[in-house]
Amino acid sequence: AEGLFGASVGVCQDVEKWGRRQSRMNNRVHFADNLRAVAMLLGILLHTSVPFAAYPEGWPVKDVSTHPAFDVFIVFVHAFRLPTFFLITGFFARLLYYRIGPAAFLRHRATRILLPFVVGMVTIVPLIQAVGIYGSLQSLPEASRPDALRAVAGYFLYGGFLQNRNPAHLWFLYYLLYFYAFAMLCAALFRRPAGQRVLGGIDAFIGRVSKSLWKPLAFACVTLPTLYLMQTLNSDSPGGLAVEAKILTFYGVFFCFGWFLHRQPALLAEFRRGAWLYVAAGALVVFPVYMLMLWRPGTPSPVFKFAALSAYASTVWLLTLGLLGLFIRYLNSPRAGMRYVADSSYWLYLIHYPLVGYLEVLVYDLALPSGVKFLLILAISIPLMLASYHFGVRYTWVGAVLNGRRRRGAGAGTPRAGPAGQ
Predict the structure, then answer these.
(1) Burial 25-41 (b: 16+ CB within 10 A, else e)
(2) Among 187-196, 373-382, 396-405, the range of highest mean pLDDT
């Protein structure tokens, strides 16, 4: 009993020290900032790789050089990138909600999420559509190819943009608004006696499962029913502004988990245990099995579908919780370089689609290996986007909207307001 009591006191002291340390460091949760940034930057790599994959269709242009390695890369990154992002976003949402209150939380989210989404819909999305039209025309025989400028102008003049209100890669901002609204509603309901009992049950479940080495499989069982709502054997992406219940349900599980995880900060230490094992098992064992099942031809039987979706759900949680644990263990301290990357990642992800798409069109028929063209696009686009962030965003009102105001010469980790995800 004395040993258990002493261990409990030690954990509480560690949590208290962790909280004081975070408060001294501009209230930053460094592992979460860094993990969210990596999730965003992986989105750029994923979108850059699509033209070089053999299977995915629906892109403006299909490169003449493809390789199945890009198919594997796309499925692999898609399995954990957005679940990780929404988990971290849920964690930050509760942190901010109880730090500044409901009214200020609404204003903050309207500035950091709603405003960039609305502005992006009338600036970035039209550019994406213009690049898409241009890319589609470039794939036609030159003799029958219409004038690209006239085709793009006609598309917008005759209302094509108004009919095709697809937010493209900005859909995550759109769905975040619904998650925030749902979280605020639940926070109000949980103040009631019945809500407190429900909240206690959720806390007990998450606490008990998080302390188990089998937690990825336990959480996979929670996610598995939501995957049956999908049209494919993995998680779908929305195709427009119509809210899709399956997307809300699947990614809402991760957002809610992040929200409730923030209620029990002592549990964060539990995710360091077994993190390398989870990543290795997910990447080297379960994911390859899933890919073999995914490539199996024919309509899947109910038993096969259950097995494939179970493998996918296990892959998602193994990689998501494994990365969470690794970032808590190794990347939970202030580093100027990572701070700069985390700050710039929001802007880079918002603007990358038109630039990357245009470069993909320019190189699609070059007689070069797909890997070389992939690296060439990244070598051109990333420096340009970083330059636009540093010289046109970081110290301007745009940077203040996205990440909080910064002063020149104050250091990478000294914002005058909170970051985009907090």
Answers:
(1) ebebbbbbbbbbbbbbb
(2) 373-382
Please give the Cα distance from 419 to 243 (Å, whole number). 27
The pair of structure tokens assigned to 312 is: 């996918």
Say whether pLDDT at 57 is over 50: yes
d(CA 413, CA 400): 14
3-state secondary structure of 113: helix
Tokens 């975070």 map to which residue? 22
On the CB side of 155, CA atoms within 13 Å amount to 19
Higher pLDDT residue, 139 or 90? 90
Global pTM value = 0.88
Query: Which residue, chain included where needed, has tokens 């796309």?
Result: 74
- Distance (Å, rounded) from C-alpha 275 to C-alpha 321? 7
Which among 393, 408, 391 is positioned nearest to 351, based on CA atoms?
393
The vertex-152 CA angle with 151 and 154, nearest 5°, equals 65
Query: Chain-wide mean pLDDT for the chain?
Result: 88
DSSP state letter for 300: P
Is residue 317 a contact partner of residue 354, using CB atoms and an 8 Å limit?
no
Tokens of 153: 């102008």
CB neighbours of residue 22 within 10 Å: 16
